[in-house]
Amino acid sequence: MKLFTVLCLLLFNLGVAFRHRSRSQEEKDKKSSVGAGLTPGSKDFVFNLYMALASEAPDQNVFFSPMSVIMSLSMLSLGTGPSTKTQILKGLGLSLQQEDNFHKFYQGLMKRFSQLTDGHQLSLGSALFTDPAVRIQHSFLSAMKTLYMADTFSTNFKNLEMTKKQINDYVAKKTKGNIVDLIKDLDSTHVMVLINYIFFKAKWETAFSDQNTHQKDFHVTPKKTIQVPMMNREDEYYYVLDQSISCTVVRIPYQGNASALFILPSEGKMQQVEKGLSERALMNWLTTARKRQLNLYLPKFSIEGTYQLEKILPKLGIKDIFTIHADLSGITDYPNIKLSEMLHKSVVKVDESGTIAAAATGELFTFRSARPLTLKIEFNKPFLLAIEENSNLLFLGRVVQPR
Hints:
alpha+beta, Alpha-1-antitrypsin, domain 1, 16 strands
């Protein structure tokens, strides 16, 4: 029997200009959102995934989108049989009884994003490109449209170059040109491509001045130092000294209801801080940070990450989907379908004006208080970065070599 492949891609692009809101209103919204959790039902999964990626690349940059990976697996679970579905959900920290609420959470998130106005550049959506020669289950198509507002396109996968162009053009348009040529290789076994995208472009609530950016030392290791453009601004920032895991956290708000958390481990404590990462820790930093006058030095940088998640997810309990035991009968009634490859790519850029970040996950399926004294804080050695919006964790990473 001829083998067929379904390419399933989840695309995440971060980067947004929200309407301006007061800091007091931002804090009110932040507190009201606490309790929903950073990633509903997937508390351990996110940080276990981070540790798995970090252990595969010791002393290197790490950057990925938890939401991108989770949404990818969530959409995939719509087309799985009971055994495979249970394993995916369990890996995400969910039970079958929680599945509907999980999908509805993302459905609500997409609706909220689509209703934002006032000049926001914030969008979230999905698309299905299917070959008319292969019958896709109506229930799967219906769920994708209802829960993930998926666009659907009938695509002639026999014309591979035209198909690649159609899909890549769609991705480039939806991400405002931040991700181009996402799909580089298709072959005659491909019958479907599934895309989920988010576009989010954020400006700092108070920008850094480029006149204060100068070349300074960044200590990659105790023995290796490089020169990086270091931004500087003295201002009030949200600040936490977390002595329990030996780190300093500075939270910088974007315009709107999003922020970046820069986490600076104490000397020699990177591994301790990484092991201490948890939803509880991040929520604690979000809710307990207090304003303090800081003389902040932060590198201007751009990093990226590329990961073969089919090699990582089995370590987290999600493995059948990549084997002959996979049950994707909810996608098509063709037998012996499995997920042969899952690629995640991400990039982030931080500069004086704000942040642009992007990530893509690809899945290939194969048949078969008072102002204190100013405190100087320099992010001049490896640190962690988390980006959240309304307490939803969007990106997480480790910056070892800013470029």
